Amino acid sequence: MTALEIHFGKNSTWTLPSDRRFASTPRSATVIEDWKEAVNAALSSPLDFPSLDQALVPGDRLVLAVDPATPALVDVVSATVQWFCERGTVESNMRIVLAGDGQWSSEELAELIKQRCGLTIVVERHNMDDSEQLAYVAANEASDPIYLNRSLVDADVVIPISAARPRRSVDYFGPFGIFPLLSNRETRGKFHSLPSLEDSHSHAKLTGWADQAAWWVGVLVGIQVIPAGDNRASRIIAGQLEALEAGAQSALAEQWNEALSDSPLVVAVIDGPPQSQSWLSVARALATAQRHVAPGGAIVLVTQLSQAVGGGLGRLRDPHQTPESIAKKLALDASDDALAAAVLLQATSNYHVYLISSLRSDTVESLGMGAIADGGQLTRLMDQFPSCTIIEGVQHHGIPA
Description:
Elements: E1 2-8, E2 12-18, E3 22-24, H1 35-44, E4 62-66, H2 73-86, E5 94-98, H3 106-117, E6 122-125, E7 134-139, E8 145-149, H4 150-154, E9 157-163, H5 185-191, H6 194-198, H7 200-216, E10 221-229, E11 232-240, H8 241-255, E12 263-269, H9 279-290, E13 293-302, H10 311-314, H11 323-330, H12 338-348, E14 352-356, H13 361-365, E15 370-371, H14 375-382, E16 388-392
Parallel strand pairs: 3-16, 4-5, 4-9, 5-6, 9-10, 12-13, 12-16, 13-14, 14-15
Antiparallel strand pairs: 1-2, 7-8, 10-11
Helix pairs in contact: 1-2, 2-3, 9-12, 11-12
C-alpha cells in the first residue's frame, strides 16, 4: 500500500494510506518560481493591450483591487507593485484595496509586501458596511445603484488582481468580477443569492452588472492568476476584458481537464494560508464537490477555516424552521456567510458532509456537519467507502462533470 499526501493550508500535509481506490486531481506540472520574471512577462505583453505601464502618466494614482482568494497573493502583489515602481510609479501614488472576504489584515499584508520587495505600500481592507469607504458611481441598466470602494472611484487607474476560476464556479462573475466584494452589503447580498446564481439567466445578468461596474470606474485591464495547487500558481495572465477571460478559461481548461466519475466519497481540499480561507471558500468548494459525489454519498471539506459563524449560517441552527423556509430567508440574506449557508443547507439535504477546520467541534456539528479532528479519523472514514476522489485546491476548481 502506497502513501497519499493531502496538502492543505500553509505547509500542512496529512499522509494517508492509499491504493488504487483513490483518484486524485493532478497537480500542474508548471509552477511559477521566478515571480519577477512571470509578472514582467504578463504585464509587459498583456492580451489585446499595450504594456500596462503605458496606461499611466506621471502622477496618476494606481489602485490594485485584490481578491484575497488569489493564490500566492503576497508573491504576485509584491512583484506587481515592484514592476510598476520600477517603471516610474511612486509608492505614495499606489494603493492596494483588499476585498474584505478572508482573514487578511491590511497591516499584515503591507508588512509582508515590504519584507518581500522593500516597498511601503498603503493597504486598505474594504469594509462594505462603512459608508465612508463607499462612493456612488452610477445606476445600472436595471436602475440598481452601483456603489464601489471610494479609493477605486478616486483612482486614475484601477487594475483588479484575482484568481482565475472556471465559468461553472458558483459565484463566477467574469475576470473583473471582484466588484460585488468591493461594493456595499446590499449589492453583495444580491450577487450571493443562491437561487439567482443557479438560474443561468439571472447569473448572466449579474455578470453583466459586474462588467458594467468595472466600466464605470474605468477598468480596462485586469490580472488573473492560474492556480496550481498548494497556494502556488502556474501562470499569470493580464489583458483586456474579453481577451483576458478567454485566455484564463483556456488555461484552466488545459490544466484541469480531467473528467471525474461520481464517487461515494469526495475529499475536497481548500488550500492556501489561513488568511485566505473563508466561508466563501467553503461555499465554492462545496458547490464543486457536490457535482462529483454519488447520490447519498459523503463530502469531506479539508480546511484551516477559523472564521466565525455569522448570521447566515446561524439560520441553520433554528430547529423550528423547515429547510425550505430557511432557504427562502437565505436567498434574501446579505450576511457574509449567507451563500455558504445556502450551499451547505443544499448539500446536507442530499449528502453527509464533514468538516476539518480550526473551529470547535460543537460549532461544526451545530451546522449539520460532522467534525473530523485528525488524519486518523479521516483515514477510518475513507476506509468505509469502496472508492474516493480527492480534489485539491477545490475552491478554484470547476472540473468538467
